[in-house]
Give the backbone structure.
Amino acid sequence: MAEIRTSDVDDLLRVLAALDDPDAIFALLEDLFTVREIRETSQRLGVARLLAAGKSYAAIEAETGASATTIARVSKCLSYGSGGYDRALKILGES
């Protein structure tokens, strides 16, 4: 993923790290992403939460509406990714 880490990405990271107000962050997300992209990204975090809780793919699909492909992708990231989901779940008090 080193090729994705550009100066523009670093600028976005600095902006996100500097924002501490959820409404300001949401306003940025609304400007950056479509409603669908925000929902899908949020859904992935919900899938990660349920996978970490030991739920089955079928239960997660039924509860979230996420596809089996999305669930598998999130599961792979939880097991072999960069640890982003783990950090996010710790922030949410889920891990």
About this structure: The mean pLDDT is 95. The chain has one domain: 2-91. The first helix runs from residue 7 to 18.
